[in-house]
Specification:
Length: about 450
């Protein structure tokens, strides 16, 4: 049973889509409208088991309000930022009749991703560069839904906006995610920074009310600062299509409509009794400008937009801080130079003393070297003399060896002759006959 009071806590916009005051209203409205679309986007996310996709939890209600009307259509979706490719798969499931789902990423690794769905394509390139859109246009040149989930850097978001909004169909929606990064200095943001992505979208909301302030020939328009700051072209003809700028936590949603559909229209009245202010009846069917009698002076914009003034002031402050820092730095450098000179002088004196000590050592070493060289020369002379003596001794030895060899050879010859004569004597008859006499003589000699 749906609580009617809770169900009435949302209001319906001009396009029939509800504007929610809280998450409960979204859930109740989804229950009431369950037959009008195929299923809540969050359910597709929860059921997803393919490539990884990550989103902040509060995004789903905001996405559901603007995407549900496209679910049964042959939509064309462009998402800047692919990463692992999971969100492309979810869009393909959530929009079963989608004609094209294109992901754009600067990382070449995303080009290697493969998808089961034939309607998913990936284009590699910088979303702020025209060349990238030439490749995108070759696949599809207009889109019903465009999501910027890229680098989240303020400059990249703002630089890509003219390219994507130009390709957004009338009746389409542009969604920029993760805008909390617009408060981070590292991402080109800051709460009071005039050139952040949030500052850009805040200014973009002025174009929802374009008819109430614009007049031809205005030089300083709300977007002129951003055009000059980032080198963009944001013609009034493009921005006149801004129908709605919706903001939720970290998300900005911009809806595009034909300029004629973005007008306030005439003032309408119903009823006949105007007892308090009867003059109001004169305003039937008048325009806003006619109603309050706007003059040209009322529409005159200041010479500089608040963003330009803030930016110039910011840089003036930075310049003043820089000058102050520069003076302090110069003083610090002077002190460092004085200290450095003192250190240099001390080092130079120590170096000179070291040089003097080294000179004494070198002189002593030179003297020692001369002594060593003299000793070496004497040693060379001794060596040469010894070598001569050794050579002479070697010669004498060789000669002596030759003489000794000859003597040995002569003695050997004498020995052989003597041995032969002895053997002849011993073999003779007289030697054998006289053997007993020799023994007797030996005996007598020993007995004496």
């Amino acid at each position: 049973m749906v609580d009617k009071r809770a169900a009435q806590s949302h209001r319906v916009g001009s396009n029939g889509s509800p504007s929610y005051e809280n998450g409960l209203s979204l859930r109740l409205w989804c229950v009431e409208q369950k037959d009008s679309f195929l299923g809540r986007l969050r359910e597709f996310f929860d059921a997803h088991d393919g490539k990884v996709s990550d989103k902040w939890r509060s995004y789903w209600p905001a996405y559901e309000t603007v995407m549900r009307r496209f679910q049964k259509r042959a939509v064309r979706v462009l998402e800047i930022g692919v990463q692992n490719g999971g969100s492309l798969e979810i869009w393909s499931k959530y929009f079963p009749k989608a004609h094209h789902i294109i992901g754009c990423d600067i990382d070449p690794a995303c080009g290697t991703l493969e998808f089961d769905a034939d309607n998913i394509s990936v284009v590699i390139g910088d979303a702020a560069e025209p060349e990238t859109y030439e490749r995108i246009d070759a696949i599809c040149d207009s889109f019903d839904i465009i999501i910027d989930d890229g680098s989240h850097h303020c400059e990249h978001i703002i630089s890509a906006f003219p390219h994507v909004f130009e390709r957004l169909k009338v009746g389409g929606v542009y969604i920029c995610e993760d805008l909390h990064s617009s408060y981070f200095d590292a991402m080109g943001g800051g709460l009071e920074r005039p050139d952040s992505a949030w500052a850009f979208f805040r200014r973009l909301s002025d174009y929802v009310n374009l008819e109430h302030w614009h007049q031809p020939g205005q030089h300083e328009t709300p977007m002129r600062f951003f055009e000059e700051r980032y080198g963009l072209s944001l013609p009034i003809e493009m921005l006149a299509h801004v129908h709605e700028v919706r903001v939720v936590n970290s998300v900005c949603i911009v809806e595009k409509r034909a300029p004629e559909d973005n007008l306030l229209g005439p003032r309408e009245m119903r009823g006949q009794v105007a007892a308090v202010n009867g003059a109001i009846l004169e305003n039937q069917d008048v325009t806003a400008r006619e109603c309050v009698q706007i003059t040209e002076a009322d529409l005159r914009l200041p010479g500089k937009s608040i963003e330009r003034v803030a930016h110039e002031t910011h840089w003036e402050d930075i310049a003043a801080d820089h000058q102050s820092n520069l003076l302090a730095l110069r003083a610090e450098i002077e002190q460092m130079e004085i200290q450095h000179q003192k250190i240099l002088d001390a080092n130079a004196a120590a170096h000179q003393e070291t040089l003097r000590e080294n000179a004494v050592k070198i002189a002593q070493l030179d003297e020692d070297l001369e002594g060593c060289q003299a000793a070496l020369a004497h040693a060379d002379q001794v060596r040469e003399a010894l070598e001569c003596e050794l050579a002479e001794a070697q010669t004498t030895l060789e000669r002596s060896q030759i003489s000794q060899a000859a003597k040995l050879e002569h003695l050997e010859t004498v020995r052989r002759d003597t041995q032969a004569r002895l053997e002849a004597v011993q073999a003779s008859l007289s030697w054998r006959v006289t053997t007993p006499l020799r023994r007797l003589a030996n005996s007598l000699g020993r007995s004496r």
